[in-house]
Amino acid sequence: QQQVKQSPQSLIVQKGGISIINCAYENTAFDYFPWYQQFPGKGPALLIAIRPDVSEKKEGRFTISFNKSAKQFSLHIMDSQPGDSATYFCAARKTSYDKVIFGPGTSLSVIP
Amino acid sequence: DTGVSQDPRHKITKRGQNVTFRCDPISEHNRLYWYRQTLGQGPEFLTYFQNEAQLEKSRLLSDRFSAERPKGSFSTLEIQRTEQGDSAMYLCASSSTMDRDYEQYFGPGTRLTVT
Lengths: 112, 115
Description:
The complex is a heterodimer of chains A (112) and B (115).
Chain A: E1 4-7, E2 10-14, E3 19-25, E4 33-38, E5 45-50, E6 56-59, E7 62-67, E8 72-77, E9 86-92, E10 101-102, E11 106-111
Parallel strand pairs in A: 2-11
Antiparallel strand pairs in A: 1-3, 3-8, 4-5, 4-9, 6-7, 7-8, 9-10, 9-11
Chain B: E1 5-7, E2 10-13, E3 19-24, E4 31-37, E5 44-50, E6 53-57, E7 65-68, E8 75-79, E9 88-95, E10 105-106, E11 110-114
Parallel strand pairs in B: 2-11
Antiparallel strand pairs in B: 1-3, 3-8, 4-5, 4-9, 5-6, 7-8, 9-10, 9-11
C-alpha cells in the first residue's frame, strides 16, 4: 500500500513555464513533508520542506502548497529551466526521528 | 567534502556471492539510515541507527541482509547469497538530533548489479 501518492509520473514543460507536481497522503500522523530532487546516478537532495501548520512555503523558484484537510500537497517550480530536469520525490515523515516515506517520483523534462 | 560518502559506487557480482557496502556519514551526525531504490521507484527504508544502536529494521531487510555501525561512525551493509532481485541502488543518509528538522542528507548511493 502506497502511503504517499504522487502524480504525474512524468512531466514535460517548456523553458520558462510552471511545473506542478501533486502528492497525497493518508496517514495523519505524518508531520513533516520534504521534497527531494534526484539527478541520474546521484542520491536524492533536499529541495524544500514544509510542516502541516503552514499552508505555503516559498524558496526562490520553488513553492510548496499544503492542504491539511485534503491531505494533499504540491510543488510548483516557477520559470522552469533545463537544469531543473530531474526526478522529484515528495515524501513524508511521521516524527522528527522517523524514516522518510517517499512517493514514486515524477520525471521532469524542461525543454528549451 | 563534508557530505555523506559511500563506497563502492558500483558493484557487479554474481548470484550467490556476498557483498559489503560502506557508508561514512556527515561528521557529528548521530543517526544513519539505509534505503534501497529500484529503477523508477522512490527509495524504501531498510534500517537505521542512532549512534551504534540499530533501532529499526524494515521487513524488506531479510535475514540475508545485515547492517552494523560498530563505533557509531561509519556503517556497513552486507548482503549474503545475493539474488538478482537484490539489484538496486543502496542509499545511505545521515541526520543529527541537534538539527531542528532532523533533516536526512543522502549519499550518492552504491549501484548493485547481480548477474
